[in-house]
Amino acid sequence: MKDIEEIIQNLELKPHPEGGYFRETYRSAGTIDQKSLGDAYSGLRNQATCIYFLLTSKAFSAFHKIRQDEIWHFYKGSPIELHMISPNGDYSKVRIGNSFNKGELPQFVVPGGYWFAAETLSKGAYSLVGCTVSPGFDFKDFILGNRQTLLSQFPQHSEIISRFTRV
């Protein structure tokens, strides 16, 4: 727990609505205009954003989705398992970490529009990762998964949805 508290303090992390802790570390000065973005977005978006994101064995990332692709980068701690449900209902998962001989990947891209959740794999541990989004992240693009809504859309994934939703 001391390591977790030190990371939160040293990196100035705050609680994230999906779970875990975060701090934005980069927001590009350049923006993308509405005409270039199309109908999927309202208003301007920065070209890219990046955050530190800390998960613990007690603080998972609940199912959520954004419009943009999101790149996850592994930094330190326990590997994570990232759970995804595609728009057509296909479930997949990937391990992000640095044990390449065990099939872990140091980075992974979650396609825009996918529902996704993440968990730290080791008990009593933490996972420090980074997430990069382009076009840049805006909470207007963020949807936190509702358990009943997701269960009605994807009843075949009831176990994983129930595990990684809070409401």
TrEMBL record:
What positions does the domain DUF985 occupy? 5-143
Which branch of life, at top level?
Answer: Bacteria
PANTHER family, A to Z:
DUF985 DOMAIN-CONTAINING PROTEIN, RMLC-LIKE JELLY ROLL FOLD PROTEIN
Q: What name does the UniProt record give this protein? A: Cupin domain-containing protein
Organism this protein belongs to: Ulvibacterium marinum
